[in-house]
Amino acid sequence: LNPNETLSDASRQNLILIAKVLTNLCNGVLYGQKETHLMTLNKFLDDNSPFLLKFLTFVSDVNFFFLLKSK
After folding, report:
1. What pLDDT does residue 44 have?
2. What's CA 49's distance to the chain center, in Å?
3. b/e string for 6-19 if b means 16 or more Cβ within 10 A?
4. pLDDT, tens digit, for every residue of 3-29?
């Protein structure tokens, strides 16, 4: 996307929904009455929260950065 280009409304909305899902996944929050149309994603959030925790633990490990630096 160039600086002088704009996103279509559909693309913008899709990116907003992706950001909401990722935010809830990172915060460990399930959807409730506020956004009932997204409640179908609660199983995805539940199923994938252990993987996210494992990933965040891995990348926050200081040794991980030393391994990257040595390559």
Report:
1. 87
2. 10
3. eeeeeeeeeeeeee
4. 888 889 999 999 999 998 888 888 888
